[in-house]
Structures are given as C-alpha cells and as structure tokens.
Amino acid sequence: MNEQINFLSAGELMGKIQSREITSREIVEAFIAQIKSRNPVYNAIVFLNETEALLQADRADKALAAGKPTGLLHGIPMTVKDTYRVKGMPATAGYPPLQNHVPDEDAVIVKLLKEQGAIILGKTNTAKLAMDMQTDNPLFGRTNNPWDASLTPGGSSGGCATALATGMTAL
Q1: Which residue from 13, 48, 112, 124 has the least number of CB within 10 angstroms?
Q2: Does the reported pTM lie above 0.70?
C-alpha cells in the first residue's frame, strides 16, 4: 500500500483525504517509512520532523472529521529545501557556520503553505548556500541521483528532486 500512496500526486492524495478513503496520518506514516527505507541510499532528506508531522496529521484528520479542513493542502505532507526557515527546524543551507541555526519563525512561503494545511515533514539537501550545480555540501554530503547513484541530481534543489522521484515526499 505504501508504494501506491508514495507515488500518488498531491492532488490525488488530497482527493483521497477528502473522500476519507485514507487519513492524513496514514499518508504521513507512508512517507516516513519511505524516507527511512530510501534516504540511506540517496541522502535527500537532511532533517525529518517525524513526531511533529504525525501530530499535525492527527490534527488534520480531526479537523476534517469536524468539517473544518484548513485549505488546499489540508493534511498533505511535504518537504522544503534546507535553505528555507521553518520554525523549530534547522536551516543550514549546508553551510557549517549555520550548523546550529534553528529559526524561531517560518519563511513567508512556509507560512503560506502551512496556512493551506500542508504538513512540513522535513528538510531536503542542497548545495552549500544553494550556490552550486551539484547537490553536495560539507554538513550533509552528497545527494545521489535516483537513476544513477554515481551522479548527483544536480542543482541546489537536488534533494527536493530526489525526494520526490523516490516517493519520499508528495511535494
């Protein structure tokens, strides 16, 4: 079942949540399982927000049951690049001087995604300061390309692309 969940589009997942065919918690659990299974090979996810994501999924399921969905992304788990601020999660951009930086507020885009009901499942790897054509940095190392692990997926969003291609995130 996880493989089926992990490769559905965000729109398909939203339809299944709204029709109550599947819960947000089940979706989050499927993505967490996929991350634990696939990330050791690909190194796309550098921070997993497992406990909080499961709590948010439970809140999303309760809100839906009460007839109060939160928005267009209600209960959908997603990841964001490690260059974006997410309150309470490290934001390092793969740069050693930012190794211990944990923002106390969300970036505007993260705030908007959360307002629409998205669940931030974790952070994805990036090039150092997002300024290279390879996804590799001194803090987290290299992300491997899902089609050829001898290569990186390239670009500063390589962690994002690999996580999506390997079913570790919906968006």
Answers
A1: 112
A2: yes
**Residue 9, Cβ neighbours under 10 Å: how many?**
10
Question: Do 112 and 86 meet the contact criterion of CB atoms below 8 Å apart?
Answer: no
The CA-atom distances, in angstroms, between 50 and each of 4, 30, 43, 149 are: 21, 11, 17, 26
Beta bridge partner(s), residue 47: 123
Superfamily of domain 2-165 in the CATH hierarchy? Amidase signature (AS) domain (3.90.1300.10)
**What radius of gyration, in Å, describes the C-alpha atoms of the chain?**
16
Place of tokens 């839906």: 64
pLDDT digits (tens, 9 = 90+) for 62-117: 999 999 988 999 999 999 999 999 999 999 999 999 999 999 999 999 999 999 99
First to last CA, the chain: 19
